[in-house]
Specification:
It is built from 14 helices and 8 strands. By secondary structure, the chain is of the alpha/beta class. Helix 9 crosses helix 12, helix 9 packs across helix 13 and helix 10 runs antiparallel to helix 11.
């Protein structure tokens, strides 16, 4: 297939590479021309404006947008609308809030333009092993692009999960679960790191990958991290960001009266990681000192 692709970051560039290697004709655009030239050298067709990208595609056109969710994606879609025509399709592969997908689908439908939300998981390893794709949208819009989805995904790694917004909804919950899994691993390894035993945490990670009920790709990545950085992880700062999906998952749980304590606590732990010295912890220390005379540490 011949499609357009906007955004050549760490994931976007590798997605284009995977598509080109499978014989697809990919017309690319990136805000920085240097990145466009780099990927063009590997077989993609370069363009240096949105107008040129759209002009290089055959009707009906399909353009995959792979830029940061929020304002950047919104601006990119509105710029595309200046050039696309009825019958064309926009695919959003970022981590968009599903409410925005529903709104965009309705807006674009009025203009005769299709919209697909493609929740994409795989990170920097997707080029090698493929991307798990959770796709939402109308079947009539999704079906013509199945060859693209099946190239990007490993066997069994693509599913049309539902209507507009469903793809990013499933990806949102996927990332919420990821928060909880990562937090459980982090706590377990911290307990072992603090123990009186001299434990090889990298070796234990590899051990648990062999038939254990807690084996997973995340555990494999933990082993890689210990090998690369040492068990003490001295060169890393314990600051953990979030890109929004965990918050949205917790809010969705609240909206539907679904208890989700593990995901909620893992999100709160990320917030705590960003504080050099927690004010709340200072209040707790002060209260313990006031009611019980417990020792406090001062700067």
């Amino acid at each position: 297939m011949r499609i357009g692709f906007i955004g050549l970051g760490r994931m976007g560039a590798n997605m284009v590479r995977r598509l080109v290697r499978d014989g697809h004709e990919i017309v690319i655009y990136n805000r920085t021309p240097e990145k466009t030239r780099e990927i063009a050298a590997e077989g993609a067709t370069p363009t240096f404006s949105i107008a040129d990208l759209v002009g290089a595609l055959e009707k009906p056109r399909a353009v995959w947008v792979m830029v940061p969710a929020g304002d950047a994606t919104e601006a990119q879609i509105h710029e595309l609308l200046e050039h696309l025509e009825p019958g064309d399709t926009i695919i959003d592969g970022g981590n968009t809030n599903f409410h925005d997908d529903v709104r965009r689908h309705a807006m674009l439908k009025e203009k005769g333009i299709g919209y697909i939300d493609a929740g994409t998981s795989g990170g920097i390893w997707g080029l090698q092993v493929g991307y798990c794709l959770m796709v939402g949208g109308d079947a009539a819009t999704v079906d013509p692009l199945v060859p693209v989805f099946t190239t990007l995904a490993p066997p069994g790694g693509y599913l049309h999960v539902g209507g507009p917004g469903a793809g990013h909804y499933v990806k949102m919950v996927h990332n919420g679960i990821e928060y909880g899994l990562m937090q459980a691993y982090a706590e377990g390894f911290e307990i072992m790191h603090a123990s009186d035993y001299d434990l090889d945490l990298g070796g234990i990670s590899e051990l648990w990958m062999q038939g254990s009920v807690v084996r997973s790709w995340l555990l494999e990545l933990a082993g890689r991290a210990f090998k690369a950085n040492g068990a003490d992880l001295e060169h890393l700062k314990g600051y953990v960001a979030d890109s929004g999906e965990g918050r949205w998952t917790v809010q969705e749980a609240i909206d539907h009266d679904v208890p989700a304590p593990i995901i909620t606590l893992s999100l709160q732990t990320r917030f705590r990681s960003r504080q050099d010295d927690s004010y709340g912890a200072k209040v707790l220390a002060a209260l313990r000192n006031e009611f019980g005379g417990h020792e406090v540490k001062t700067e």
